[in-house]
């Protein structure tokens, strides 16, 4: 083999291809000179090559986060899109009409879109409900203030006269008193008198 063919063969051994055809000048099977071709197929493992695997931080958490985010977004987006499409195609906005005599419309009936009407009826509170809730809150706070003021006046009167046991009397358990008396008696008997 010539040197350039040998260099090609060595290059072939380093490359990642699986087969190669080599043509060289030599003796053929019948003894005459001519071109001979060899077709080699070889599995190359490249175990001595200095390829390295780059060490990188794991992307598992990021990929898992993206998967869950897409899943839960689609879990809400797809049904919402279907409901909105159905409402817009088959129900449509409300038509403006005269209010019948003696009928008092509710707050949610003033909205034209069906989804807005549903949200005003079932999710949001009407102005009347907000007003009544605020009035109830004011009543509760005022009632608590009156109770605290009455409790403070009672406490001051009891401190002034000191004729009840409510705030100033601390009950004592007689069981603990008997135990202390028995311990003192036992100590006195064991120690004796000097």
TrEMBL record:
TM segment ranges: 69-91
Mode of membrane association: Single-pass membrane protein
GO CC field: mitochondrial inner membrane
Family statement drawn from the similarity comment of this UniProt entry: Belongs to the complex I NDUFB5 subunit family.
Protein purpose: Accessory subunit of the mitochondrial membrane respiratory chain NADH dehydrogenase (Complex I), that is believed not to be involved in catalysis. Complex I functions in the transfer of electrons from NADH to the respiratory chain. The immediate electron acceptor for the enzyme is believed to be ubiquinone.
Subunit structure: Complex I is composed of 45 different subunits.
Name of the protein in question: NADH dehydrogenase [ubiquinone] 1 beta subcomplex subunit 5, mitochondrial
Designated gene of the protein: EOG090X0FIE
